[in-house]
Amino acid sequence: MRAQFVLSEIGVGLRRNLTMTFAVIVSVALSLALFGGAVLMGQQVDAMKDFWYDKVNVTIYLCNKNDAEGAETCSKGAVTAQQKEQIEADLKKLDIVETVHHESAEEAYKHYREQYSETPIASVITPDQMQESFRVKLKNPEKYEVVATAFSGRSGVHSVQDQRGILETLFNMMRGMNVAALVVMGLMLLIALMLIVNTVRVSAFSRRRETGIMRLVGASSFYIQMPFIMEAAFAGLLGGLVACVLLLVGRYFLIDAGLSLAEQMPLVQFIGWDAVFSVLPLVLVLGLLMPSLAAAVALRKYLKV
């Protein structure tokens, strides 16, 4: 096969269907950008899980004198020194517990003032209204239920809170956004494939005379179909390149500049450039293969050779 002839046929096809080719490029670019964004969102959730799950604690709040009416386990008043010693000893016996830190009411009050000093309620809260607690770091945060089962409902214990549950709400929201991005990507991909099929059909019809002559001189099916497939592949590759640019620009403006989420949320571990660069080859390969396969399928119907 002469490469010069194939390239000239590709150029002719792209010029004849310039508007539809542009629509294909845009559709492929948007769908692949959404796909890449969804993959990166999944990696971001995993990175945040690894980062935060290593830092979250299980907190066992102890009864104070104001909790007598609020919880059944606090009906006898504030937790006693003996109960605190027994709770701490039982915690340290558990194999899944890594560290145990006791926070006094005074320390809890100090931390509250540091975090919520500007709120109206901060001026009326007193140290005796704060609860003592044990901050428990687990070797495996997934084993929270072991601690909850062992200490919930115990005398002197007001409640057991798993900080991981608070983060799960955020992670579930991000997963929902991920699913929404994949749904939109699917719709955009369907539109792109329909445009590719339509472009191939129009191109095949406009060049029916050339393909007829090629049949008469004994050209193979592969030789006749290759320019059409390569046109679609070229448009898809351009769409993939645009998608890569969108992902790079999006990562830069969202995290490093523009909105600068890295500065606004310093406690969040954002994915790095290496994660973005690892997704780009996949985006390019999909941009090249999807239109090519769609064109090959369309040619079986619209170009009989």
From TrEMBL:
<feature type="transmembrane region" description="Helical">
    <location>
        <begin position="275"/>
        <end position="299"/>
    </location>
</feature>
<dbReference type="InterPro" id="IPR004513">
    <property type="entry name" value="FtsX"/>
</dbReference>
<dbReference type="InterPro" id="IPR003838">
    <property type="entry name" value="ABC3_permease_C"/>
</dbReference>
<dbReference type="Pfam" id="PF02687">
    <property type="entry name" value="FtsX"/>
</dbReference>
<feature type="transmembrane region" description="Helical">
    <location>
        <begin position="179"/>
        <end position="200"/>
    </location>
</feature>
<dbReference type="InterPro" id="IPR040690">
    <property type="entry name" value="FtsX_ECD"/>
</dbReference>
<dbReference type="GO" id="GO:0005886">
    <property type="term" value="C:plasma membrane"/>
</dbReference>
<dbReference type="GO" id="GO:0051301">
    <property type="term" value="P:cell division"/>
</dbReference>
<comment type="subunit">
    <text>Forms a membrane-associated complex with FtsE.</text>
</comment>
<feature type="transmembrane region" description="Helical">
    <location>
        <begin position="21"/>
        <end position="42"/>
    </location>
</feature>
<dbReference type="InterPro" id="IPR047929">
    <property type="entry name" value="FtsX_actino"/>
</dbReference>
<comment type="similarity">
    <text>Belongs to the ABC-4 integral membrane protein family. FtsX subfamily.</text>
</comment>
<comment type="function">
    <text>Part of the ABC transporter FtsEX involved in cellular division.</text>
</comment>
<keyword id="KW-1003">Cell membrane</keyword>
<feature type="domain" description="FtsX extracellular">
    <location>
        <begin position="56"/>
        <end position="160"/>
    </location>
</feature>
<keyword id="KW-0472">Membrane</keyword>
<protein>
    <recommendedName>
        <fullName>Cell division protein FtsX</fullName>
    </recommendedName>
</protein>
<keyword id="KW-1133">Transmembrane helix</keyword>
<keyword id="KW-0132">Cell division</keyword>
<dbReference type="Pfam" id="PF18075">
    <property type="entry name" value="FtsX_ECD"/>
</dbReference>
<feature type="domain" description="ABC3 transporter permease C-terminal">
    <location>
        <begin position="183"/>
        <end position="304"/>
    </location>
</feature>
<feature type="transmembrane region" description="Helical">
    <location>
        <begin position="232"/>
        <end position="255"/>
    </location>
</feature>
<keyword id="KW-0812">Transmembrane</keyword>
<keyword id="KW-0131">Cell cycle</keyword>
